[in-house]
Write a structure and sequence with these properties.
The protein is mainly alpha-helical and about 80 residues long. It contains three helices and no strands. The N and C termini lie far apart (about 55 Å). The mean pLDDT is about 85.
Length: about 80
């Protein structure tokens, strides 16, 4: 049952990432998938080292993976130099 909670956390973080980034981030489906992957990876690391607070680490892992993907995408990265007038 805990795995469903971590998947849900990843889905919520992925959805929030899409809502906040709008057209600048990846589309909805990859955003949800990356959120779940980040949450499950962080949870696996937490369980591997026998730490407490897996749900918090799941949210942090999902956020970190989505931030990395959105920042370093090839087509239109979030952080790029803009021309000044």
């Amino acid at each position: 049952m805990n795995v469903l909670a971590y998947i849900t956390i990843g889905l919520v973080i992925g959805w929030l990432s899409r809502v906040i980034a709008k057209d600048r981030g990846v589309t909805m489906i990859p955003s949800l998938v990356f959120g779940v992957i980040g949450a499950l990876a962080a949870t696996a690391i937490v369980y591997m080292f026998d730490l407490a607070g897996a749900a918090i680490y799941a949210a942090v892992g999902a956020f970190a993976l989505l931030f990395t993907v959105n920042t370093f995408r090839q087509d239109d990265p979030i952080f790029k130099e803009t021309e000044t007038l």
